[in-house]
Write a structure and sequence with these properties.
The protein is built from 9 helices and 11 strands. With about 250 residues, it is of the alpha/beta class. It has 2 domains: about 130 residues, NAD(P)-binding Rossmann-like Domain (Rossmann fold); about 110 residues, 2-Layer Sandwich (Dihydrodipicolinate Reductase, domain 2), CATH 3.30.360.10. It has a 6-stranded parallel β-sheet with strand order 2-1-3-4-5-11, sandwiched between helices. The protein has a 5-stranded mixed β-sheet with strand order 7-8-6-9-10. Strand 9 and strand 10 form a beta hairpin. Bound molecules: NADPH dihydro-nicotinamide-adenine-dinucleotide phosphate (NDP) and the ligand O=C(O)C1=N[C@H](C(=O)O)C[C@H](O)C1. The ligand O=C(O)C1=N[C@H](C(=O)O)C[C@H](O)C1 binds next to helix 6. NADPH dihydro-nicotinamide-adenine-dinucleotide phosphate (NDP) binds next to helix 1 and helix 3. Keywords: Oxidoreductase. Its EC number is 1.17.1.8.
Length: about 250
């Protein structure tokens, strides 16, 4: 049995994860932790932490995991570059899977995007549109940024240099080398992502729409199983978990 700890237990994802762990034959709920709880005491003896919280909290939790030898699945988004570097350093001390989207479907879409972008590198304007619920605090979503990275790599562009995050006023004609991002926030939208390749005479849209958060919880359990199956240190992604990198 994999002993799973969950931080952010009262959050939208925390609740889904508790249900998923309780329903899984090969996992047991070691501890659920909320803000203000003693995380170090709670994590002692756990095999894997699953953390969907906020970047600052995740890094604090990972530091404790590294001290205790607890592996970790991180779904939190909104990390800046310095925080990502800290996370990578912590992965030298314990095994971590870090992915902005744990759904199998989104990770298949990332593969499709790589193929589409290579074929559509010239003559097609690339725009990424994401929509989420009114409570989401970071933008663009981690998934949209990962989609942007995959597409930028495929067409040989530097995402930091070519990303345009929203437009207003007299923007001038579109620079064809840019990758645009647009964010929608409202209601209870779980997570919609579309990458648009807009050419002259046609447009191609590659979309994923989440209708239930259980997809992220089930993906997280796959990550926990992957880590429990022998990893001790290192930073992994869904590519590794799903075997896409082989
Ligand atoms: N990788 C993926 O597949 C997915 C990633 N996400 C990401 O997961 C994260 C959480 O999403 P969601 O569950 O919707 O958010 P919620 O706000 O519903 O939950 C976040 C939880 O983290 C807790 N938390 C916040 N700050 C701290 C802290 N400093 N210490 C301890 N706990 C803290 C919150 O507690 P409190 O309410 O008391 O502040 C809350 O319980 C987001 O970054 C989101 O983008 C979401 C879905 C899928
Ligand atoms: O905050 C959310 O809800 C989600 N966040 C992740 C992201 O930022 O990409 C994944 C999913 O889209 C839901």
């Amino acid at each position: 049995m994999i002993k799973v700890a969950i931080t952010g237990a009262s959050g939208r994802m925390g609740k889904m994860l508790i249900e998923a762990v309780q329903a899984a034959d090969d996992c047991t709920l070691h501890v659920t932790l909320d803000k203000g709880d003693d995380v170090r005491a709670g994590l002692a003896g756990a095999d894997v932490l699953i953390d969907f919280t906020r970047p600052e909290a995740t890094l604090e939790h990972l530091a404790i995991c590294a001290d205790l030898g607890v592996k970790a699945v991180v779904g939190t988004t909104g990390f800046d570059d310095a925080q990502k570097a800290q996370l990578a350093q912590l992965a030298e001390r314990t095994a971590i899977v870090f992915a902005p989207n744990m759904s199998v479907g989104v990770n298949v879409v990332l593969k499709l995007l790589d193929m589409a972008a290579r074929a559509l590198a010239e003559g097609y304007d690339i725009e990424i549109v994401e929509a989420h619920h009114r409570m989401k605090v970071d933008a663009p979503s981690g998934t949209a940024l990962q989609m942007g990275q995959v597409v930028a790599d495929a067409v040989g562009r530097d995402l930091k240099a070519c990303a345009v995050y929203g437009r207003e006023g007299v923007t001038g004609a579109r620079d064809p080398s840019t990758i645009g991002f647009a964010t929608v926030r409202g209601g209870d939208i779980i997570g919609d992502h579309t990458v648009l390749f807009a050419g002259i005479g046609e447009r191609i849209e590659v979309s994923h729409k989440a209708t239930n958060r259980s997809i992220y919880a089930q993906g997280s359990l796959r990550c926990a199983r992957f880590l429990a199956g022998g990893k001790t240190t290192g930073l992994f992604g869904m590519n590794d978990v799903l075997g896409f990198s082989r």
